[in-house]
Amino acid sequence: MCAESALPTVTRDAILRKWVRQPPTTPLIQQLRDEERQRALAELDGGRVLDLASEANVTRGVSADSLTRVDFSDDASSYASETIGDAVDEYQSADPERPTLPFADDAFDAAVSIGPYDWKFLDVESLTAEVGRVLDDSDGKFVFSVPTPRSPYAANGWPDNHYYEPREALSLLAPDWRLLDADLVFQYPYYVHMALNTLPANLQEPFVGAAERASDELTARGRWNDASYLVLAAEPLNYRGYLDDALDCLFRPVDENGFWDMEDEKILRGLDYEIASDDENPEFEWTPDDRELWRYAPFGLMGALQWRVSALGTDRYDDELRSALDYFADEIESGTLSAMPSYGIGPLVCAFSLAAEVFDATHERVAWELFEHSRERFDFTHAEDSLLAYGWSYLAERESGSVVREALSEALALMNDRLTPGGLFVFDNHTTRRHQNQMYACWGFARAIEVTGQTGYLENVERVLERTVDERMRDDGAFVWEDEISSIRRARRSATKRLGFRPPYWNFLYECHQTFFVNAVAHYEAAGGERDFDREVSRAMAWIYGDSSRGDLVELSELGVPMRFLTVDDGLDVDDQMYKGSYEIGSYLMALTNLLAEP
């Protein structure tokens, strides 16, 4: 959160100077200081460390190859230098209300800040972003602490301190960080705490030990709402690096385990794999799948073009993009349009509309042909027809008349009629309840709202997203494929699974389901939605980059994009799912572009 109303500079500087070296205190109060310090220092691994105005004893305890300290006033920095001396290699200061750290990108391996996140005059959102900038983007770590309203000091209503509910604290990290670890620190409630602190020091010691054991118990049980302080360790998610690797994979030649077919100058449908070693430490042998399934490459092309027209886009892959567009234009001209499902046509309308923006207007003719064909052929009775509304919305932004906008408004009304009060789109297809179909409907629905300006529908998108989080999102951040499976069906399929048959579809966790949700949230926000889903977006992406049972799914595949799926029992070897599809890469590119392009 941004810094609140500023204190007089003299008062603020006095607080900052006083914080540098805390005076001796009672055993119970010292117990909190020791808990925060010890738990934070245990998270640090040396290297180049940045200390952000921690209390002096924390700074002295840091083991590092080099140690830099930043305070939030020149006076506090000078006093820290006098107090800590040459245990720190460099002292700097920064403005707490507009914190800009005077260091280059990737300058540190770790950062620690124990205490300052309490201060209301510190712009912690800007500071957290700056910490992410100066940390090594491959394996940097940030450790910091915040008090909660359960702190006994919160009862005093101290005007200079901020107290964070756990969700609020975690929202500081969303969506650009992955939570690595959390220690939950116990303190006695206010009146007990105050009474115990009046006891002689030797009589406080048993209560100190009990508080330490309570902290361990809260941490082990994950009882966030009972903690007085949170010590959090997080790493920045290197979205830009992931985006570069994904683009490289999509346009890397097939014979180098990429998705670019050099011979036909098109995006490949997918790469199949076999596991060449034991399942515990798998190595994958990838082979191209060049079947033309019209719902795959169009998605990949759409994702790449959304990146291309964004502020992040460059001309690096323009030759490949033009060739892929030409390939589809030729296929459409040759009469294959009638074989394309709405799942493929909608993304192609989007892709050709965006191509008209970034290349030349001739691509808009193809987008119009696709629009006219799809408007006549589809009636929004199938969940995947929602992707037509999604594609049409990009053409509508280029249209000078009202034909596409009228079709979009009609589609919006038809999709709205399919929405239940409980936040579920119910179309005629039997797979309508599945996660991907719910998210496609959100994409088309939110984009239609944005383009037509019919914001009264936004609360309906919000309801679907909230239901998705409440009913489908697991504790590890993954989304289940379908919820509310009957006990009879579940028992029957569990039995067949034990006999060696294919696992039921609700046993699969797909990487693309994570990005489908991220993109739905992005379009909801672009349409004007105000509900904050950043925390859930962060959890969804963190599942891909380390929170899954297999760890980092990008590292696992060695392709530059994540593995396609895991089963709930950690499997990778279900025969008809052992591939990576280009449609997944399209959604992945869209998600990374949306995250990086955020204001």
Automatic annotation (TrEMBL):
Signal peptide: none annotated. The keyword Methyltransferase applies. It holds the Pfam family Methyltransf_11. Coiled coil: none annotated. The keyword Transferase applies. Keywords: Methyltransferase, Transferase. It comes from Halococcus morrhuae DSM 1307. One of its GO terms (biological process) is methylation. Residues 65-143 form the Methyltransferase type domain. One of its GO terms (molecular function) is S-adenosylmethionine-dependent methyltransferase activity. This is Methyltransferase family protein. The lineage of its organism: Archaea, Methanobacteriati, Methanobacteriota, Stenosarchaea group, Halobacteria. InterPro entries: 6-hairpin_glycosidase_sf, Methyltransf_11, SAM-dependent_MTases_sf.
